[in-house]
What we know:
Domain PPM-type phosphatase: 169-516
InterPro entries: PP2C, PPM-type-like_dom_sf, PPM-type_phosphatase-like_dom
CATH topology of the domain at 85-100 and 174-238 and 253-513: Phosphatase 2c, domain 1
Structural class: alpha+beta
Family: Belongs to the PP2C family.
Protein name: protein-serine/threonine phosphatase
EC number: 3.1.3.16
Radius of gyration: 24 Å
Shape: globular
CATH superfamily of the domain at 85-100 and 174-238 and 253-513: PPM-type phosphatase domain
Amino acid sequence: xxxxxxxxxxxxxxxxxxxxxxxxxxxxxxxxxxxxxxxxxxxxxxxxxxxxxxxxxxxxxxxxxxxxxxxxxxxxxxxxxxxxxxxxxxxxxxxxxxxxxxxxxxxxxxxxxxxxxxxxxxxxxxxxxxxxxxxxxxxxxxxxxxxxxxxxxxxxxxxxxxxxxxxxxxxxxxxxxxxxxxxxxxxxxxxxxxxxxxxxxxxxxxxxxxxxxxxxxxxxxxxxxxxxxxxxxxxxxxxxxxxxxxxxxxxxxxxxxxxxxxxxxxxxxxxxxxxxxxxxxxxxxxxxxxxxxxxxxxxxxxxxxxxxxxxxxxxxxxxxxxxxxxxxxxxxxxxxxxxxxxxxxxxxxxxxxxxxxxxxxxxxxxxxxxxxxxxxxxxxxxxxxxxxxxxxxxxxxxxxxxxxxxxxxxxxxxxxxxxxxxxxxxxxxxxxxxxxxxxxxxxxxxxxxxxxxxxxxxxxxxxxxxxxxxxxxxxxxxxxxxxxxxxxxxxxxxxxxxxxxxxxxxxxxxxxxxxxxxxxxxxxxxxxx
Length: 529
């Protein structure tokens, strides 16, 4: 064993020793955590099938912990975007599942078809625009879309419900979805193993679950639609459309972007294309926001509380080695990376921004946008109501007419110059490399107890020690232990506290862990379809 291997092994062992000393638990607590599985509102996993095998020319004994974990993980291919993922969520807030918004369509018809909190299940490969029509009250053109392309694509989409959309990201007969609710949080994961893409969303609702429910129903469909328009635009720019009549057949043709990308990888990996995908995510959120606020305005006579309901948004789209991320609010995406060259330790790279008053940059922007007001921030909250500076929904801090719908102390006083909460998201693309191990997505409840570094170290150690374990569930278990310890309770005592009262000890917590690459790693949380 050469000196570099020895040094690397020492680095890894230092990481594990530090974590073990900080987070040791008793056997009784371990037994309790096994029983706590039934307390999770959501617990799902997915393991990609792989027909590839890779030889390793180093004895396992001589391999560092990092190498044992990551062997084969970084053998990227076009369809090898991720190996497996796990998701878990636990509630602390008491919330009613309001089923009457959108005339009951969301709660009574759509969500029951989408929710699958303990397994992935197959869904129709393409959404029906007719379903979006039922939810959409704005009925306008899609946001920031070229009108000529929009007219071609929208007419075809509306006349073909349901239809199969010719899209590299979203065309497949094997699309699977999992997700559900935990308190006011919602989580969603949609993947196509055939085409190697994954879309994950965490929607951290507040003042009710309606906004998060609306996102769970509409945002994925919106993303599909805007990616479809992106494909139409690329086809048009590359001369794949001729006359208007030819355009109709061109959209429905079997010539997909996947074929063009296979011929010319420069197109797929270009910054221009990735920027187009990020714009699709932005447009999808903006469309959902417009539709939601229009729905709120129509229904606020019966549900005036809807004007205060909102949600943070975290969306990740992974395809090949392209990782595209959008966030509004304070949920986070944290990348775990460990350079293969050099002696650097495991690193946590935050890929998202924190949009709250705790971020000095966000605080100063808010004050700068309202220079003549002395009461923008009161009691460390915007207008005394909210800490996040960017969010979905929360219409009463964006439009005066929605604020006027509230009565008494619920109404915001001196709403001089709205908006005070914004909807412009942070977007970023990252090119996954062989140094990148996994990505952890989490609502802010996770980061109330753990730093970014602690999160990636906990997952790293767990995946090393438990190659068939569930890292998302493990993170929540560790959080419960820490929350109980800080409250001078046992974890079992904490879990006996009913939701609502338990909010004093921890928030709703949602976690997704995505293992990158083609590693041959199985998960006990993986489900049979």
